[in-house]
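User: Hey, my collaborator sent me this sequence without any context and asked if I could get a structure. I don't really work with proteins. Can you help?
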Amino acid sequence: MLNYKITRAHSTEYLSIKKSLLNILLKVFGDRSEMAHSVEGRTPYLDHYLVDYVNHLPTNMKLKLINGKLLEKYILRQVGRPYITNEIYQREKHPFLAPPTFLDRNSKVYQYMQDTLNSKDIQDLDYIFDIEHIRNSLNQLHKRQKEMENKLQLRELVSLEGFYLMLCSYITLKRRFNVKHEGQ
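Assistant: No problem. I've predicted the 3D structure and written it out in structure-token form, which is a compact way to encode the shape of the chain:
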């Protein structure tokens, strides 16, 4: 039995690891983006004991709000703090990204996302996600797409599109195999 409170952060982390991270690790964060930036790299293997340990850490050891700014990987930064400068310690994450794919309102993928995110099937996930926020974000994403010029905004676009596709895929599989969640 679990001996800690499951938060939205834990649920999101779990879904990310189980559903999307395994499939996109090489495509988005590995070979494809490395080739796009002419970098030779190797995706590290992690010990499952370490992953399990980190999964059970309280959220405040992974994320910390300091001076109104969210500091990610907090415990990792604390471990490395004696060895790095303040500039590196406080720097935001900035991974190499594969070139973004843009969706237009006439594409089948965009229509698939809209149909799926406006269906009744997504309501089953309202205990994990803020459904209305997800719908509004998708609409804003496409409105802002053309004005997104800098890397931070492009990174946001790629991340959001990946998230929406993962969420829509989950809902499609749920429909196809008639999966019910607890309480249905």
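In plain terms: The chain has a mean pLDDT of 76. You can pass these tokens on to your collaborator as they are.
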